[in-house]
Amino acid sequence: MIKKRINGQLLAQHIGDQMILLGFVNKVNSNGTSLELKTSDNMLVTVDLQEPIDSCLEGYVEVHGTVQSKSTVSCNSFVQFPPEMTEEFEFCATCSQM
Questions:
Q1: Do residues 35 and 75 touch, judged by C-beta distance below 8 A?
Q2: Is residue 8 classed exposed, middle or buried when 0-12, 13-18 and 19+ CB atoms within 10 A define those classes?
Q3: How many angstroms separate the Cα of 26 from the Cα of each of 3, 21, 51, 76?
Q4: Contact assessment for residue 32 and residue 52, using Cβ atoms and an 8 Å cutoff
Q5: What is the pLDDT of residues 7-21, one digit of tens each?
Q6: CB within 8 Å of 16: residues ≥ 6 apart
């Protein structure tokens, strides 16, 4: 199955589709079952996790999952990038597709 790399504005056009979304962790739900990402186009997206996380999750995260709505993604897996890898990372706020 092909996964598209999309930004926050494109979520509404891909409901039900598998996708990859890159964002910065804005906050993690207190019970660890979801998180809020700020995408490259400054959209806030709720990411529902399959299992609660029990570790600190911060910085840039790449989410692989299914678009549920224009602002919600169901996460199958994610990659957390170490801070030293993203120190000079430039988020492309004007890109329509990353």
A1: no
A2: buried
A3: 24, 14, 19, 19
A4: yes
A5: 999 999 999 999 999
A6: 66, 67
